[in-house]
Amino acid sequence: MMSGDFSEAFIFLFDVVLDLFSASTVCGVHHKRLKFWKSQNLLCTSNVLHTSRKLLKEATNIFETMRSGETAETSIMNAEELASPNNQPSMQLQYLKWPIWVLGPTLLLATGMVPTLWLPISSIFIGPNIASLLSLVGLDCIFNLGASLFLLMADSCARPKNRAQGCSSKPPSSYQFWNMVANIVGYIIPLTMLLGSQKGFLQPQLPFISFAVLLGPYLLLLTVQILTEMLTWHWQSPVWLVTPVVYESYRLLQLMRGLKLGVELGAPSWMVHTIRGLVCCWVLVLGMQLMRVVWYTGFTARTYNQESSASVDVN
To answer: Mind listing the UniProt keywords for this protein, alphabetically (predicted)?
Structure first.
């Protein structure tokens, strides 16, 4: 009986030890599995974070590339818009302006030089009367029409192609002053001669109608020149520099025509000498105007070179 009880107790203890050993083994395995799962989770989490960071970086690069591409496309589109015919004048309009360079001087030739040089004076000059005066004034009015059209064409060529850009050319005050002085002197000399003739200081006297035939068209065109110059100064047109050159060149033809008519009218010597003096004065003034054109061209060239060098230095 005692031996049976001892064997049963031994078997019970052995079962308990086995249970404890199996439980510890299972717990160890479970613990190892738990640690392995945690490490796997950490590894997966780190892999996921690394992958997400990489994707975010690639996405950022993609967005930056897309933005740079959009910027390049925008700049290209802006350049194309600037180069489009709506923003810049077409070459066709520029080609249409080329004939003006020939048409303008041709108008001056047809309205000024041809009637004066080739039209016989005897066909329009009948004598010292109103009809002859009106005929001579009509010739000068034809020239004035051609000169006005020429100045309008020259202004159109000088204006910038893009109308949005302003174009104002104001002459210096000294230039305006000396131009007005020359024009006033051109008035004073013939009127002084007329007054001296009427007062009897100059002999023989010259009738008023003969004086009007000789110098009336000259005084009228001088008045038109003054008005034209004042308008170009007021409008700040680029043609202010060539306006006196155009009218003063024709004035020389007027005075040479007056010398021919003076011979036919039998004008006194003092009148002939007065007209010759006016010719010399206006040749001098015309030479000064041409010198002014040369100076202005050199000044413009110097200014352009300075701006070009400054832009190169900035770049």
So the answer is: Membrane, Transmembrane, Transmembrane helix
Q: Is residue 56 part of a domain?
A: no
* Full residue range of the structural domain in which residue 133 is found: 91-159+177-304
Number of domains in the chain: 1
State the CB neighbour count (10 A cutoff) for residue 12: 10
143: Cα within 13 Å, side-chain hemisphere: 27
In a domain, residue 29? The reply is no
In a domain, 131, yes or no: yes
Look at residues 49, 45, 156 and name the one whose alpha carbon lies nearest to residue 100. Answer: 156
Please check whether residue 36 lies inside any domain of the structure: no
User: Is 220 exposed, middle or buried, given 0-12, 13-18 or 19+ CB atoms closer than 10 A?
Assistant: middle
Q: What is the mean pLDDT of residues 202-211?
A: 90
pTM for the model stands at 0.67
How do residues 174-186 score in pLDDT, each as one tens digit?
999 999 999 999 9
Query: Is the C-alpha dihedral spanning 277, 280, 285, 286 positive or negative?
Result: positive
DSSP state of 202: S
In this structure, which amino acid lies at residue 68?
S
